[in-house]
Amino acid sequence: MAYLLAGNLLFWPVNALADTPLNVLQSYLFFATLMLLGLTVVLAGRHDRAALVWGGADAGDRRDRVPHAGAPGLTATTVALPRAAAAETPVPPPAAEEPPLFVDLDGTLLKTDLLYESLFGLIKARPWAALLVPVWLAGGKARLKAELARRVDIDPTGLVYNPAVLERLEAERKRGRRLVLATAAHHRYADAIARHLGLFDQVLASNDGVNLKSERKYEAIRAQVPSGVFDYMGNDEADYAIWRGARRGIAVDAPAAVLRHATTLCPLETITTPRRPRLLLILKALRLHQWLKNLLVFVPLLAGQKLGEVGPTLQAAAAFLAFGLCASSIYVLNDLLDLPADRRHPRKRRRPFAAGDLPLDLGLTLIPGLLLASLVLSLVALPPLFLAALATYAASSLFYNLFAKNRVIWDVMLLAGLYSLRVLGGATATAIVPSFWLLAFSMFLFLSLAMVKRYSEMDSMMKLGLEQAEGRGYVTADMPVLQSIGVSAGFLSVLVMALYINSPEVGRVYDQPQALWIICPLLLFWIGRVWLQTHRGLMHDDPVVFAARDKWSLAIGAVCGAALLFGRT
After folding, report:
1. Model-level pTM?
2. Which among 91, 104, 211, 298 is least buried, having the fewest CB atoms inside 10 angstroms?
């Protein structure tokens, strides 16, 4: 209830500036969701710290508290697997003398975290149900995981596994060693993963009443190994309690601080997979190349003949940065919500969060951090009306990601609107009123580019033999319709430009408006070429990125800019 009231209170100034029912609804939904994610992280951290304090108890005391195998609240699943499956290949001598190896799931076998995977899956599928997450978390992480598992299905084949860990487990399996999956994830997910991999003899996992983490996981392991001799594979601080009682430990991609402390608890082996520097991965997740779209905030300056004036140019530059920070927060949120779909995409699967190169909880830190930086910059350096435009952009982006992305026509209309909101943002930042001609031209041109984006996605799916992209409302049979709408919208933008050049208004801005006529055939050529490249399957996922890398697009842009400058003289 507290975060609901805070959402209304803190967003009231923005809603007052943009006082329409749609803006009020979108702003409220946007901020309430952000507070939901923040509260989840805070409360989850408290529960984890409590588990670590319990896990730091004396090892002797722990051994006295070992429950029996049938203790209430313990989930132990035996997975029947045919060991003869690997009989065709030579195997090393059996490891009958080896103690069982217990393997952690999140961050160890998986390069992701199932709690966050299921949380983002719930937000994506049932945004309103996600408002209950703080209520569930107040009852403990076990209840939260159980409620998420009831509502969200996770496909084991679509998760990111650590290849080095899989290779090690397959080798141990061939040697005849007993392997047990011991995880704090809910047993519904853990059982499905064990069945998919076919490597484990047994599964220990959280149930509706017990969060099997740290000390509780150790007790569950001891209940299965009366001798107390076992090996354990983990990755973070929550595994200290298990490593302390293990014969030997294996640390997978653990931070240096974790490795230093873990080596004092038991003999430790490490498995390390090469990764790019964290900072480079974060910059990639922010999609800085997409900031090219924010150059649209300078369009009102160019149209109003004020480009180069110090005051308006600095205001537009601040708007560019504010839009970039806000857009990057939305990109991170989009990546977190689209994890299953991105992992099935031929190019998007390489994104840092989808590939498991960045932890999902880092995204929960980046989203509010980037939004806060954008908000502070807007409040300090830009007029209040710009904040309303920025909030409308952010709320519209959230609405697109949660509700409109899989709805035909709605999605491209919103995409085109997001382009236009950048132009309006530049106008509010520089106090330049955009003309009817500029808005009409932007509407048709950006609708054409949005159709390019969708057509390109459908073309990629068709090449993969799929009829429909996951999370999209279009099918490959719709491609001719998308192309027709897109080409028509693009040529209509050229018609608007021609009508503007022939209108009385152009003489008030340009001394030689006839110089602008060269822009029309160039735009016709560019739009035709963009759609031809798209039809041939040569278009990037984002046409703006394509334009920034394409020499013809850059050359045409330079000539159009020169024509605008020449028309002023």
Report:
1. 0.80
2. 91
